[in-house]
Amino acid sequence: MQYGIIALTKGGVNLAKKIKSFFLQSDIFTLPKLNQGDFINIEENFADFVGEIFTKYKTLIFIMATGIVVRSVAKYIRNKTVDPAIVVIDEAGQFVISLLSGHIGGANDVAKDIAQKIGATPVITTASDVQKKISVDMLAKKYNLIISSMDDAKKITSLIVNNEPVFVESEIKLDIPDYLKIDKSLAKGLICVTNKDQIYEEKPFVKLIPQNIILGIGCKKDVSYEKMIKFVENELKILNIDKKSIKYIATIDIKKEEKAILELAKYLDVQIVFFMKEDIEEIEANFSKSEFVKKNVGVSNVCETTAFLASARKGKFLLNKKASDGITLAITQMNMD
Question: Which domain holds residue 171?
Answer without folding.
Answer: 136-210
